[in-house]
Amino acid sequence: MGTIAGLWREAVAAEHAGPAYLVQTGEGWQPVSWAGAGRAVEEVAAGLLALGVEPGDRVALLSRTRLEWLLSDLALASIGAVSVPIYPTSSAVECAYVLGNAGATAVVCENPEQYAKIAPLRAELEALERVVVFDGAPGSAVTLAELRERGRAALERDADAVLGASARVADGDLLTIIYTSGTTGPPKGCVLTHRHYRTMTDVVTAVPGLFESGDRVLLYLPLAHNFARLVGYLGAGAGFTLAFCPEVSDVPKALLDVRPTILPTVPRLLEKAYATIQSSVGEMAGAKGRLARWALDTGRQASRARQRGSRLPPALAARLAVADRLVLRKVRARFGGELRLAVSGGAPLAAEVAELFHAVGIPVLEGYGLTECTTASHMNVPGSYRFGTVGLPLGGIEARLAGDGEVLLRGETVFAGYWQDEKATREAVTADGWLLTGDVGSLDEDGFLTIVDRKKDIIITAGGKNVSPQNIENALKAAPLVSQALVIGDRRPYLAALLTIDPDEAARVAATGTEARVVVEQAVAEVNRHLGRVEQVKRFAILDRDFLRELGELTPTLKLRRRVCEEHFRDVIETLYAAEDTV
Predict the structure, then answer these.
(1) For 213-223, how does the pLDDT look when each residue is reduced to its tens digit (9 = 90+)?
(2) N or C: which end of the chain has fewer CB within 10 A?
């Protein structure tokens, strides 16, 4: 099957036409050639060898999404060392847990701020011997520039040092330990080999119509997460240009500057854009408003026809051309104007969000997977997609539903187990190789998978009814004013919800003289109108702040940690059920 080290050597040797990477500097976005990136990886790899890093050593990566992160990861893969990503938003306590559990011998971190989390730990973590810092080198740390200089010196003594080390890496060797962020309990380290990621890269690269020559991909997702990590390897496998955007807040400008053709994303960014588009159109009056609504309606009609696989009737095609020229292309221009498709993962995406983007000419292909299956098992692909589902299984993946609806997966990309945790591994993978995902799903007549919810998140009401909160939450978040939604009701007589509101949308609502609560009440009523009685939200509370990653209420990938949220807002929840007999 091959290794990630081999994948990288092949990519550099291929001499792709476009640059390998784009990085933002004070002088704008600067290209990095494949040859230049290849030299950098070799120098970092040789420097790590000179520093004493050996095959099998665990080396942590603690940084935002930037070129140096990926180059360091590829350098570690090239010498048989094991990368251990840590989210840059992690606290010192969280860093200590991962470093200690993995037995990391070295850390590569971004800057003095990240180093400050590591410095106090060096005395208590005996295995931790070396620290490399990209920007600056406080204390006894080595700068990345110094590491590369050591590497150049080592290569002058032995030009084949890295090539020889790469040749000794086998596809079954450990590539990485990725610690799941987890919505409950301490994180567990997922053990993934070179074979796992090389197989996944080859499978996704082979999807017809997904990649085209000259593609530019904007990456803002954290490289500590398996989704972004796969995108990094896909750049080598497919030969596209990868642009790094370390800050989510910079994404709107980066879209205009880079003009990507593909955007890997999580639903949160799409949901916010959806809310902005809906609000903007809703505020338009007169002929301008009528034109915008007509154009979106025309786009939706075309979307529905394309979802069915039908050719557009001539009259609809003509209307769509006018709608596109007058309105829809202006919406696409906000995303750079050349966005061919977006790929959404990490959390469920509401069908209405995907449909709106499709209506304006940006297909959003939703996928599904988890770290334990090396990122993805299912995906909607060009020419075969259904909004509201996560698509069909990718090549080489077996998928079925257990009797209780749990999604089970089997294939070459199912992980090797949890690091030093045989009990948890046995609980996650059956004796015949089926991964128990913990997600409940349903299949349509053609095999497209819809994720219903996490098994542990299913609400069982006091009346014994099973309710999936995820679908209700997605429907509530489709309202422009609602930022986050947490539906509760386990062992309760009815469902309630904790809602947060988007500050920008709240300001627009306030400017009209309307109370935010009135708008939210209308949104909840509209959602309830499409739900069965037991699924309806009977009461809700608007919180005075959003759910926060810093308080442990969100995972690094922005999924709700339900139990933490419920604990933090216990008093609010109790007020929602204080007069339950009247409902």
Answers:
(1) 999 999 999 99
(2) C
Residue 318 lies in a domain: no
- 3-class state of residue 468 by DSSP: coil
Number of domains present in the structure of the chain: 2
- Structural domain boundaries enclosing 253: 4-169+206-264
Cα separation, 453 vs 455, whole angstroms? 6
Sheet holding 482-488, edge to edge: 482-488, 495-501, 537-542
Is 271 part of a structural domain of the chain? no
Alpha carbons 68 and 114: distance in angstroms, whole number: 15
Amino acid at 449: L
Q: How far apart are the first and last CA of the chain?
A: 60
Other Cβ atoms within 10 Å of 87 Cβ, number: 23
User: What are the tokens at 558?
Assistant: 């922005």
pLDDT more than 90, % of the chain: 78
- Computed over every residue of the chain, the mean pLDDT equals 93
pTM (predicted TM-score): 0.88
Residue 325, domain member (yes or no): no
- If residue 42 lies in a helix (H) or strand (E), which one and from where to where? helix 34-51
CATH of the domain at 87: 3.40.50.12780
DSSP 114-150: HHHHHGGGTTT-TT--EEEESS---TT-EEHHHHHHH
> Mind listing the pLDDT tens digit for each residue in 298-315?
999 999 999 888 889 999
Structure tokens at 342: 């977006």
